[in-house]
Amino acid sequence: MTKKDVLELKRRFKKNECTFTKLCGCYVDGQKNIVVHIQETFLNLQDEEFFKYLEIAKKTLSGTIGNNLLELEFPAAEENPGGRQQFLMGLKDSKLKNTDLLDRFYQMIIDSYDYVGNYLILIFHDAYDVITRTNDNAKLDESEEVYEYLLCAICPVELTKPGLGYREDEHRIGARIRDWVVSPPENGFLFPAFSDRSSDIHSVVYYTKNAKDTHPEFMETGLGCNTKKTATEQKETFQTIVKKALGGDEEKSTQIIMEIQENINDMVEDHKERSEKDADPIVLTSKAIAEVIAESGISQELTQKISEEFEEEFGETPPVAEHLIDSKLLAVSEQQKEKKELVKQVATLKQKLVEKESASESPITDSANAMEDDLTDMDTVIDSGDLDDTDADASDPMANAQALSAYDVVLKVKPQKMTQITSQMINGKKCLVIPMDEDEHANVNGVTTLI
If we measure between CA atoms, which residue out of 231, 214, 206 comes closest to residue 322? Predict the structure, then answer.
């Protein structure tokens, strides 16, 4: 199921396009008892309720495919009579009109869903008349098929926070009445999956709001599917494997992981440039990950160890390369590179200043003007004017540059001019005023100005 498929379904969740035929559900308390049942003709709901339920349906198909939306396949045994897939097929075909099947469905979730607290189970039935589309995405009048499906949402029900409020009946401020409120869904599923604009009865699309807490027990026991890790879980598992293999040196492990991240990212970017827009993503097998790790300069022994752990952990479901990319680590790596380059440039400029001072009788502060072009290349104007000791250490060029970059305006004037500078309000704005004689010149960001 692709992002395009998901969007096609969600676009229909609007007042004038929605075709949900039935809405059923039950409210479960903290002791796993059913408190109340829901059974409604969806299109007959009052507008306020209609839109709230519609919002829950949209949330159950939200997020990123591979991270919040996972496509789970049914094992062959579950497609036999008595299996979970066969049960869901019967529930779908009943159009949620069979009370016994609904009660079995609710109990199936209650028995398999590990949750402490109250929650609401909702299940929607819909029949979508899939209109044929041409290659240029234009709609035709004829229908390809009727995609009949169930959409289930499991929503926590929580007490509102305590607080003060206006008690209108008593005309005073008092403790606010706390209500049980339905929250957005934490988990849910779509059955059957909608793949290539067609029904796929061999798969279910599983939704999880929290990519780190997916309730795998519900995937396996409730839906009868093999569990699958989210992209977030795959990324964290992979980093744990590398850190474990490299031992307790945290700094070294982090540095090597960042190098591996860069290699994987380069591989993905190169694949995107060379491939067509809808090309299949790169799948990282244990052999492929070994090649990536080897490029990071890790010994053959450690590479083999990581590769074996990787194979044991991911087995027959190797992750997509993009799922292992940590954007935060890549950003940190880029910052480190920029910092190293800046330190290198500052060291070079410092050496040039020393050399110029040796070749001239003028002090470094006077020769700084001649270095202005070099400093400007760093996108930071570093003047050699006096700095307060609290801003930077003059002996530390890096600290000096960082301190100067904190100011919007940096001035360097001759000592005799210091006493002439005044602050005045001009047109409602605070201004620095520097008197200039007719024969005096000013240099602003490398541009000589005649005053």
Answer: 231
Amino acid making up residue 243: K
Classify residue 274 by burial, with Cβ atoms within 10 Å: 0-12, 13-18, 19+: exposed
Residues in CB range of 270: below 8 A, 6 or more apart: none
pLDDT at residue 403, rounded to an integer? 53
**Closest among 194, 321, 157, 302 to 244, alpha carbons compared:** 302
Q: What pLDDT is stored for residue 396 in this prediction? A: 52
Query: Which phi-psi region, left, alpha or beta, contains residue 445 (left: φ > 0; alpha: ψ -120 to 50)?
Result: left
Residue 83, number of CB atoms within 10 A of its CB: 16
Model confidence pLDDT, tens digit, residues 86-120: 999 999 999 999 999 999 999 999 999 999 999 99
H helical segments located in 60-214: 84-93, 99-112
**Nearest to 289, CA basis, from 271, 311, 272:** 311
Residue with the two structure tokens 């072009």: 373
Positive or negative, the CA dihedral 76, 79, 80, 85 is positive
Amino acid at 259: E
Q: How far are the Cα atoms of 196, 347, 365, 392 from residue 395, in angstroms, in the given order?
A: 65, 12, 13, 9
Alpha carbons within 13 angstroms on the beta-carbon side of residue 121 total: 25
User: Which residue type sits at 371?
Assistant: M
The more confident residue out of 5 and 379 is: 5
Instruction: Please say whether the beta carbons of 317 and 242 come within 8 A.
Output: no
Strands 69-73 and 118-133: unpaired
Q: Which residues face 198 on adjacent strands?
A: 195
Q: Which stretch of 70-74, 337-341, 370-374, 395-399 has the lowest confidence by average pLDDT?
A: 370-374
Name the token pair of 34. Answer: 């059913």
Dihedral (Cα; 26, 31, 35, 37), 10-degree rounding: 20
Can you give the pLDDT at residue 156? 96
Alpha-carbon distance of 261 to 34, in angstroms, equals 48
Coil vs helix vs strand at 288: helix
Amino acid at 449: T
Residues above pLDDT 70, as percent of the chain: 84
Tell me the C-alpha distance between 6 and 17, whole Å.
16
**CA–CA separation, 321 vs 342, rounded Å?**
32
Residue 23 to residue 41: CA distance in whole angstroms = 6
Strands 22-28 and 118-133: antiparallel
**Does pLDDT of 375 surpass 80?**
no
DSSP-derived secondary structure for 227-246: P---HHHHHHHHHHHHHHHH
Strand partners, 199: 194
Q: How far is CA 253 from CA 244, 296, 389, in A?
A: 9, 12, 38
